[in-house]
Amino acid sequence: MAVINVNQVRWVSVALGASVLVGILLNFNLLGVWAGPVMSMGVSESGRYIISAHRDNKLILWDLHQKQRDTLSDNANLYSAYFVTGQNAFLWQDTDNLVTVQSTDDKVLKQFQHFPTYGHIISNDLETYLSTDDQWNVFSGYGDTKHPVLNDGVVPSFIGAGKLLNLSIDRNNTFFVTAGFDDDHSAISEHSPLNSSQRFSQYGGVTLWSAENKQPVAKLRGNSSKTHAAISPDGKWVVSGDEAGNSITWNTSIPKHRMRTARYHSGLYIDDLPDDLPDSDYFDKSGLIEAPRGVHDFTIAVAFIHNSEYYLRFGNNSHFAALFKTGSPWPVKYFDLGESPKLVTYGSQYSRNTAIATSPEAGILAMGHQSTGGISVYQFDPDQLTLERIWVVE
């Protein structure tokens, strides 16, 4: 892309006038994004493209290589921006409820009418489509093939919980995960996921589902309150974090076995000790590293950043992220994401944790900002264990 300097700006201002100058500055990304804050986003597997849906219904495609952006629509569903794994294509819905799978070179691969989604995902073969509504009901398919997967109560919900029921699917289309608000300890055998006659759902927490038959495999318990979870690209791991500071890891081959993650300051809780010990004896600190001031373990989101090997936890009201090696309870490193511009992690915006997205294959992290329509983009280096901010658009 061409470079424009300050002297050129002054000359253009005099020669062409203010209105033309504004157009030129927008073209060269020298002015901020004229859009509302990001509500949902996705990153392409290559790491080159980012798709984002904004509070004012704009849909923007960002090209990281060219450092350019293109507003594709002014009527996008806020929670519909999603990049398809293994495809150079993204998923979105407009405010007339038309869902589109569209390639980055503007080819429509699939299109259908649907209800207004509060989050949706599609498999890389474009055959498995899953979506949720504002009552945290989950559906598979669309049109004549649409049928409920989860519909067992109206509490919790998007309004009641203050967050989405997050969806995550592995690249092999083996499992998908739902995660919302966790306070239930019952077994799958005790409750059907399809029981609309009851008020309180038994599947608000982290649940592992079969992508083939759309049936629950296991309730992954241990979190509390607002909870976010992600499944690894290879489908072997599920990681979670919640607003109470709990973080749990499960291997999908043994989902009944939960592995706690260490808190950043107090360490790893040991739950098989006698009840009469001092509080400090219940925590193992042997694997802790020094935690920087301002890092918080109460979590707004989790995301894999290097294939299925490393993942990040994002603290609420914090500009730090913690790096974990999958399967280990100990934080490996803390990354300062920058105090300015303020990120979506500020302000307890659990309803916007979909404004954080990664490409685990390319090591790219993209995040929306707290109160403007811009984004910050970071590159992870798995050899040096660094996370460098490589692009900021305010």
Brief descriptors of the model:
394 residues; 38% strand; disordered N terminus; mainly beta; 31 strands; 4-stranded antiparallel beta sheet
Description:
With about 400 residues, the chain is mostly beta strands. It folds into two domains: about 1-30, no CATH class; about 30-394, 7 Propeller (Methylamine Dehydrogenase, Chain H), CATH 2.130.10. About 5% of the residues lie in helices and about 40% in strands. The chain has three helices and 31 strands. It has helices spanning about 5-15, 20-25, 160, and strands at about 40-45, 50-55, 60-65, 70-75, 80-85, 90-95, 100-105, 110-115, 120, 130, 140, 145-150, 165-170, 175-180, 180, 205-210, 215-220, 225-230, 235-240, 250, 260, 270, 285, 300-305, 310-315, 320-325, 330-335, 355-360, 365-370, 375-380, 385-394. The strands form eight sheets. Strands 15-18-19-20-21 form a five-stranded antiparallel beta sheet, with no helix packed on it. The chain has a four-stranded antiparallel beta sheet with strand order 1-2-3-4, with no helix packed on it. Strands 5-6-7-8 form a four-stranded antiparallel beta sheet, with no helix packed on it. The radius of gyration is 21 Å and the shape is globular.
